[in-house]
Amino acid sequence: MKSIDDFLPFLSPLIEGMAKHFGDSCEFVVYDHSKNFPTTTVAAIANGHITGQRLGESGAVTGLKILKGQEEESGRYNCVSQTSDGRFLRSSIIYLRGEDGIILGSLCINFDITELIRARNFIDGFLKMEPSESQQLLPVEPLFFENVEDLLVAMIADSISHVGVPVAHMSREQKVEGITYLNRRGAFKIKNAASVAAKYYDISRYTLYNYLSEAEA
């Protein structure tokens, strides 16, 4: 394999088949890194509506804000990423190497987990019942985070799900509601939380503090 074009006869029908199998919530993209890395070219794509990418267009490897993920020699796996309109994706990037071991391109998988987060929040809320004897018999699996950054990202995701509208479509009042939700949960006690939350809500830190003042008034 000397170029990404050598992979396409195999990968193009493969990603089309996987898109049909996994449905409209899962995007598969083959990137060509050889032309102007780290800016890349979309060499093949299925379910491009997930990120809005198109065949032949150039962009970053995922076109997303990468939040976390496990880095390995063969790629980057199980990243949580966010689209420009506020949806959350679980993404993995598999490197495609040539005969000399040089990375020629990559296969990226983006699965939209926004509705799953909303469903989880609904179930969590629904199951908040008064303690009972039967409930005490059920084992509870605690949720742990490797670092406070992951915790903050999860809290922001929950706040967006709480509002129930993608950030790009939120009104001012809905953004105030989301920021207020974060404040009630103590998110802004985390270092640099205001800066991170402001980026996700597409507002300035100054505006975020105004929203907080408004909510506390």
Order of helices and strands, N to C? HEEEEEEEHHHHHH
Provide a count of the helices. 7
Distance between the termini: 64 Å
Contiguous uncertain segments of 5+ residues: 61-68, 129-146
Mean pLDDT comes to 79
The computed structural class is alpha+beta
Topology overview:
Blueprint: H1 8-22, E1 26-36, E2 39-46, E3 58-59, E4 65-72, E5 75-82, E6 88-97, E7 103-112, H2 114-126, H3 133-136, H4 148-163, H5 172-184, H6 193-200, H7 205-216
Antiparallel strand pairs: 1-2, 1-7, 2-3, 4-5, 5-6, 6-7
Helix pairs in contact: 2-4, 4-5, 5-7, 6-7
Properties at a glance:
alpha+beta; seven-stranded antiparallel sheet; 7 helices; 37% helix
What does this structure look like?
The chain has 217 residues and is α+β, with helices and mostly antiparallel strands. The chain contains 7 helices and 7 strands; from the N terminus they run H-E-E-E-E-E-E-E-H-H-H-H-H-H. The chain has a 7-stranded antiparallel sheet. Strand 6 and strand 7 form a beta hairpin. Helix 4 (148-163) crosses helix 5. The longest helix is centred in the last third of the chain and has 16 residues, at 148-163. It is elongated and about 65 Å long.
In a nutshell, what does this entry contain?
The chain is of the alpha+beta class and 217 residues long. The chain has helices spanning 8-22, 114-126, 133-136, 148-163, 172-184, 193-200, 205-216, and strands spanning 26-36, 39-46, 58-59, 65-72, 75-82, 88-97, 103-112.
